[in-house]
């Protein structure tokens, strides 16, 4: 592989105009496709195989036109102090609001508080339920505007009015966080390379790759039913790995120049060596993202596939566009150790033999491997302790900031009707096979009333045919609590006995039940997903490193960093530690998607650092250095760049911590702390300590496996048999000067 990529790098360097034209054409084509493509429009959300989804599907069949999965809104009214909602003036205001809400083209129904018993016992709070024909993500902006305007008119009349439900749900917005991440990346790259031009190349190619990837996703969004979150994940991952991959190749190119090679040769060798590591690092990320399909949640599968496609583009750009741009830059990109005139300010370049901070740290670890290993493992183990108390769930309006109208509506409903009123359960009774459907409906209602944690059970509402009915159950606990989850399981357990006696099937659905089922589905998929991703990557790393122990060490180190990161997430978002610093207004269960999301994203990025750092060590070992010295050599060439890459990752993810959305905040914090643990504790401390302890055994591979594995030559051994091409006299003169 190294030879092939070496020739590819030289070809791209020579044919740089052609290569640049190809990528410019692809970017233009994708951009035109994105602009001319129809709007994404309706984005379906389904969770195949869950009971809640089966109930939704059944309602669509048995209650046609009822919009079972349509968006809902609760317009909550509170009377001024000393007044009641039943007072004539307040009642007239509410009825006028209900009338205004009913005029929307997407509105399926509006329930009047006074005819639907939606006034609290003390008479101070009432609510109007609005049901729409389409889901929250499909709702037109005009419908949301009409909803807000109707509420504002009631406020102008003197009432306190807040809006809850998923009708106000909008696609996550991006912008400031990405700008912050790019700005920090630019600063880190300038410090790393000491050159504005060299720092600009990774940023430029990363933006081109993300532009092509996101534009393609936008162009195909309508055809493939892709949601807005798909492009957000693709942007986040594509930007991160795009900068990383280009960073490593540019860094290797400058190192090759410092050894006296001509620029075309240096570009070829940079792509042949660092490019090989880029290919395999990219493969690990692709495996992690594509592996999300095992969860069997269509939206998550599409997000993973789209992000994986963006990673593939980032790899191809790093292998071809980077050497082409280096050809355009010419002598403006200096060898390693040389600064640009703008940044050098006349200071001499650092002597190449002078130890760097990376080599000093690696030498210390090699001398004290046991102490460093124990300190690193114990530290991560302590951080992972809170993970034992991990509780999973999905965010609801109760986790919104107190400044949000959804949160204020949630609190008003809890005040007037009890905490469980914010998460009612919908029980669907399928009595098609029952001899007496009405008796079955009555039996279900009576059974549910006898369960614990139940406040209200409405009468069964049958369909026109009379073979199916819905029953609304209001728990005595808030939607995200374990008590509500226990109630859902209790109803389903009672349903089994009812079916045995009456042949009527009982299904529990609604947003609360759907959240519980999604959490369970994600939890059940975590171990298979982990086994698949880690297993495939383990096999891939065996091929890369031609070792059994090094990939095993990489996988175990990753598990340590993920567990420690989950522990930190639990401590902050579930226990409330440092909640003020992180602006966490409401603690509660950790988002169900966090564990599997962190496994996928962090594993891919962690293996990036592993491949880039350890391939340098193996390269030195293969070329004759002793194991301990090879570790130091790997750090001399790779530690600075890996550190820069990790800092960029942490900056990008940390930008999301400032979001007002609790889910986005949690993702940003979790990924940032996971990258910190993995890059600076696992890869920078535990990895060199383990390799120092193992010595030559680290690179042991059974003979039969050695013969069976393909020789991908990531370390570029074959390139050393090539006739070296050194710099021309002008180049040598430049190197002497620096």
Summarize the helices and strands and which ones pair or pack.
Layout: H1 2-14, H2 16-36, H3 51-62, E1 72-78, H4 88-101, E2 107-111, E3 125-132, H5 141-156, E4 160-164, H6 176-193, H7 196-224, H8 228-258, H9 263-290, H10 298-329, H11 341-344, H12 357-367, H13 369-384, E5 392-393, H14 405-417, E6 425-430, H15 437-449, E7 454-457, E8 461-462, E9 468-475, H16 482-502, E10 505-509, H17 511-545, H18 549-574, E11 590-591, H19 594-622, H20 627-654, H21 662-694, H22 703-708, H23 729-737
Parallel strand pairs: 5-11
Antiparallel strand pairs: 1-3, 1-4, 2-3, 6-9, 6-10, 7-9, 8-9
Helix pairs in contact: 1-2, 1-9, 1-10, 2-7, 2-10, 4-5, 6-7, 6-8, 6-20, 7-8, 7-10, 8-9, 8-10, 8-20, 9-10, 9-17, 9-19, 12-20, 12-21, 13-18, 13-21, 15-16, 17-18, 17-19, 18-19, 18-21, 19-20, 19-21, 20-21
Span from first to last CA? 33 Å
Number of strands: 11
Biggest sheet record: 5 strands, antiparallel
Strand-residue proportion? 5-15%
Helical content band: 55-70%
Number of helices: 23
Mean pLDDT: 81
- Low-pLDDT parts are 340-350, 727-738
Shape, principal axes of CA atoms = elongated
Q: Tell me the structural class.
A: alpha+beta
Report the radius of gyration as a whole number of Å: 30 Å
Structural overview:
It is a single chain. By secondary structure, the protein is α+β, with helices and mostly antiparallel strands. Helix content is 62%, strand content 7%. The protein contains 23 helices and eleven strands. The chain has helices at 2-14, 16-36, 51-62, 88-101, 141-156, 176-193, 196-224, 228-258, 263-290, 298-329, 341-344, 357-367, 369-384, 405-417, 437-449, 482-502, 511-545, 549-574, 594-622, 627-654, 662-694, 703-708, 729-737; strands at residues 72-78, 107-111, 125-132, 160-164, 392-393, 425-430, 454-457, 461-462, 468-475, 505-509, 590-591. Strands 6, 7, 8, 9 and 10 form a five-stranded antiparallel beta sheet that branches. Strands 2-3-1-4 form a four-stranded antiparallel beta sheet, sandwiched between helices. A two-stranded parallel sheet has the order 5-11. A hairpin with a 5-residue loop joins strand 8 and strand 9. Helix 7 (196-224) runs antiparallel to helix 10 (298-329), helix 8 runs antiparallel to helix 9 (263-290) and helix 19 (594-622) runs antiparallel to helix 20. Mean pLDDT is 81; it is low at 340-350 and 727-738.
